[in-house]
Amino acid sequence: MQRSDFYYDLPPELIAQRPLAERGGARMLVLDGTEDSPRDGIFSDLPRLLRPNDLLVFNNTRVMRARLFGQKATGGRVEILIERLLAPDEALAHVRASKSPRSGSIIQLADGARLMLTGREGDLFRLHAVEATFADIMSRQGHIPLPPYIQRPDDEADDSRYQTLYASREGAVAAPTAGLHFDAPMLQRLAELGVGRAEVTLHVGAGTFQPVRVDDLDRHIMHAEWLEVSEDTCERIRLTRQSGGRIIAVGTTSVRSLETAAADGELKPFRGDSRLFIRPGYRFRIVDVMLTNFHLPESTLLMLVSAFAGHDRIMHAYHHAVAKGYRFFSYGDAMFLVRRPDA
């Protein structure tokens, strides 16, 4: 398939710029596998779509305050987005400046902290924190790295609303946004229903927002993201299968984590980088149902959900969502997708 097969026209006013007043207040478009046409619903309908013995798999990553601002010795302004922490005082980062800084140069931050550029790895710069740790620097002056399509600076509300309630392992530069809809009462209702719960970790990188730059998808190089699937989660999935329950991934990051851990045909614990590119033609091994938000046109995430629920069905559902005024992307509405039988 070609990149253009995943294009749709999105009016800018449908891109959610702020979260709703309540986490669970979103609308939810349902493709349950029984018919091609989507059904309009609300997120609070979720318990009626689940069954006892189903297993929800959440991504427990936590978003770092990864955006920093400083200046070069020449006075030029610099914006830094920490991509990955390598050690307490070492990181890989995206660095934006009017002129690309050279290895060995110093970036001065607002509170006097200093970062030294020590090299490059592809598009990323290697940074060394001088007489500090990145945890200290980010806690003092880091900003929540809102996605590029949110056209405003981060504010105090984003500190909590751009994190899931269950976020526990810091390391992401973007939230696993399907999980943002879950509040404490919803989690309690699902537990009382008999729906199980497991967690994976995938630290979402800035690459998730990078466009596909080639028309032929066979030539696309997928960005790498670090993930971990534990033995406990593998065991919970095995027990769910034995009891006849379904595996329900909360977000594309949970899908990617589980499918990576089962890449050789058997689900096993996994810890490391994944470049798994899921697109139409992929055969899913683990996930039966997916809860997700809406995704950018021509993005790898739109390709993933198309592989899961069917390209034509997904594109029809997206056009329906646009016509009905759904809210899109990170702070937007949700979709409930049942895997098509031939996927």
TrEMBL record:
**Domain of life assignment:** Bacteria
> What pathway or pathways are given for this protein in its record?
tRNA modification; tRNA-queuosine biosynthesis
Q: Determine if tRNA processing is one of this entry's keywords.
A: no
In alphabetical order, the GO MF annotations are: S-adenosylmethionine:tRNA ribosyltransferase-isomerase activity
Catalysed transformations (reactions) = 7-aminomethyl-7-carbaguanosine(34) in tRNA + S-adenosyl-L-methionine = epoxyqueuosine(34) in tRNA + adenine + L-methionine + 2 H(+)
Name a biological process GO annotation: tRNA queuosine(34) biosynthetic process
Q: Where in the cell does this protein reside?
A: Cytoplasm
Primary place of residence? cytoplasm
Keyword Cytoplasm present in the record's keywords: the answer is yes
For this UniProt record, the keywords arranged alphabetically read as follows: Cytoplasm, Isomerase, Queuosine biosynthesis, S-adenosyl-L-methionine, Transferase
EC category name: transferase
What does the record give as EC number? 2.4.99.17
What InterPro entries is this protein classified in? QueA, QueA_dom1, QueA_dom2, QueA_sf
| Binding partners and assembly | Monomer.
What family does the entry list? Belongs to the QueA family.
The record's annotation in PANTHER family points to: S-ADENOSYLMETHIONINE:TRNA RIBOSYLTRANSFERASE-ISOMERASE (PTHR30307:SF0)
**Protein name per the record:** S-adenosylmethionine:tRNA ribosyltransferase-isomerase
User: Which species does this protein come from?
Assistant: Thiobaca trueperi
- What gene is this protein translated from? queA
